[in-house]
Design a protein that fits this description.
It is built from 19 helices and 5 strands. By secondary structure, it is mostly helical. It folds into 2 domains: 2-12 and 110-398, no CATH class; 403-538, no CATH class. Strands 2-1-3-5-4 form a 5-stranded mixed beta sheet. The two termini are 32 Å apart. 47% of the residues are buried.
Length: 575
């Protein structure tokens, strides 16, 4: 029943942000860090055929294998129908219809995320039911199924939903050991699932390791240390074998060795996000600011009302069973082992802790109903679920009315044949454009991430040789309130705005500030949903003569809101 409800609520909204692969740089979905549509298949090619120098070592191997396995039957279908011939690593990859094929591969990968979301809800139901009863389990299933981060990441193709799903199975197994007693079979099962969770995403170890250690102590309490140590040795052996297999160590050991080496010793080769994002310094003020960002980010992702009730539920749970306080240890480890050393607090890492918090909130609501306060308990539950549904509804609304769709229509209508639209930053964030609208990164740069030495060169290029159209929008390299990509120097953006580079703002697409329930929806790490888009057109050519044949300036800039022309208020937060 839970699986059916999750599929019914999540599956209808999978079309947002699908790639329109009309050019080689338009093959990815708009979701930051999603491995769709081709990354999983590319990783299998690297594993079983030939390892390429541009291979992505950012994540462990296992979930790539899961997604590729789900996509393989569709590839077989394309091969049998003649729509896939002479597969290659270059666009269009041997596909007769790359647009349709890559969209379908993306949907298949997102269905894997939906399945993982169903596992999250089921595991949370089982975990809470084990500790606090069936009523609490049902409430927890509803809360986690409507939780904003589960609803979002359960449809995107990121690894976060999968890592959370396996982590919640670990939490459930820990709860079973608390209630029914720890033995060898349960400890080995926890080790096996924990290995899969860690082989899906490294951050899962923050949950797996402390709960596994707690499981050893539970075994000692049940059967004594002699048996506990013997069982632990067996569990460690099982963990090692399953982890090695799930990471592809038996097939391509250097892949995982390189991943671990870069993760701990060469992180700059995995991400350049710190080049663009604010990193809190290791000073007292910096640590306090980071802690504030951490706490508020966690509360925002849970939702303030659920966070408040979860605190009460935690107190009730610890009073009944002190060992349940162990479920808070992973959250502390997240801050001290990951956030504090890096100086940043990504909100997507809160996903499993949001689900655990939903369990504590469910515990308190269920206990209140059992204590005879049925009416107030149901009223509080309605408030919690209603708040989350409003947040989810706002998310869906702006996914269905994403600013990219209107921007794509405008560009298709107004860009003359032969003209090029140039952009800053990440190509996958672009509006879904037909092949007739040519795009390239400003200055024709192939590589840009982490490079800030181009500022003066870009300004001179735009002033002297610039294209007829420049598209500005934020991406993963942008600060939370930044209206442009981190690839676009601030002074260049201001020069575009004030016209000193010979451009004017022709069209703007954005959400109005007062849109629906945006004031209660938490900000995501990246501006993936309905980002503000500004399109500039050149007003003079390189000889400082007026340019003809480009869209006229008809006065006020158009803005996309609930109607064709929405609010004129400034948008300062995205995604």
């Amino acid at each position: 029943m839970i699986v059916v409800l999750v599929l019914a609520c999540y599956a209808p909204f999978l079309e947002w942000g699908l790639p329109l692969a009309t050019a080689p740089h338009r093959i990815k979905s708009v979701v930051t860090d999603a491995i769709l549509p081709l990354e999983a298949l590319a990783e299998m090619h690297n594993t079983f055929v030939v390892s390429k120098p541009d291979r992505n070592y950012g994540y462990p191997w296992f979930h790539y294998f899961v997604v590729a396995t789900a996509q393989t039957p569709y590839l077989a279908y394309l091969w049998l129908t003649g729509d896939l011939r002479d597969p290659s690593a270059e666009y269009p990859y041997g596909l007769r219809d790359p647009v349709g094929a890559l969209r379908t591969l993306t949907v298949i990968g997102r269905l894997v995320s939906v399945a993982m979301a169903a596992v999250i809800v089921i595991a949370n139901f089982a975990f809470v039911t084990s500790l606090w009863g069936l009523r609490a389990g049902r409430i927890a299933a509803v809360l986690s199924g409507t939780a904003f981060p589960v609803f979002y990441y359960g449809r995107t193709g990121n690894l976060d939903a999968a890592a959370c799903a396996w982590s919640m199975v670990v939490v459930w197994l820990f709860a079973v050991m608390v209630v029914r007693g720890a033995d060898r079979r349960r400890l080995v099962a926890l080790a096996c699932v924990g290995a899969i969770a860690t082989a899906t995403k490294d951050q899962a170890s923050l949950i797996v390791v402390p709960l596994s250690i707690a499981g050893v102590f539970l075994c000692a309490a049940s059967a004594g240390w002699r048996h506990a140590l013997k069982w632990t040795a067996g569990a460690v052996a099982v963990f090692s074998a399953v982890y090695a297999g799930a990471c592809g160590m038996f097939i391509d050991p250097m892949r995982h060795i390189t991943h671990v080496r870069r993760l701990f010793f060469e992180p700059q080769l995995l991400t350049v996000a710190s080049t663009y994002r604010t990193v809190h310094p290791h000073t007292l003020c910096g640590i306090v600011a980071l802690l504030g960002e951490f706490v508020w980010g966690f509360v925002a992702m849970i939702s303030p009302p659920v966070a408040l009730v979860a605190v009460f539920g935690l107190l009730v749970a610890v009073r009944e069973r002190p060992v349940t306080s162990m479920l808070m240890i992973p959250l502390l480890l997240l801050f001290f082992l990951l956030n504090l050393p890096t100086g940043v607090a990504p909100r997507r890492y809160f996903l499993p802790f949001v689900v655990i918090a939903d369990g504590f909130a469910a515990c308190w609501v269920a206990r209140r109903i059992q204590a005879g306060y049925r009416r107030s308990g149901l009223l509080i539950l309605a408030l919690l679920v209603g708040w989350q549904i409003l947040v989810d509804a706002d998310l869906v609304y702006w996914q269905l009315h994403d600013t990219r769709y209107a921007a794509a229509k405008w560009l298709e209508k107004n860009v003359p044949e032969g003209s090029v639209v140039e952009f800053f930053g990440a190509a996958p964030k672009l509006p879904p454009l037909p092949a007739s609208v040519a795009t390239r990164r400003v200055g024709g740069r192939a590589r840009w991430a982490g490079d800030k030495s181009h500022a003066l060169t870009i300004e001179r290029y735009l002033r002297e040789e610039g294209p007829p159209f420049v598209l500005i929008m934020p991406d993963w390299s942008s600060e939370p309130t930044m209206p442009h990509s981190g690839d676009c120097p601030e002074f260049v953006y201001q020069a575009l705005i004030d016209g000193s580079l010979g451009y004017r703002l022709a069209q703007e697409f954005r959400r109005p500030k007062e849109s629906l329930f945006e004031w209660i929806r938490p900000r995501l790490d990246n501006p993936d949903v309905a980002p503000p888009i500004r399109i500039f057109v050149r007003t003079v050519d390189v000889r400082r003569h007026p340019v003809s044949g480009l869209p006229e300036n008809r006065g006020a800039v158009s803005r996309v809101g609930p109607t064709a022309a929405g609010s004129g208020h400034d948008l300062t937060e995205t995604g």
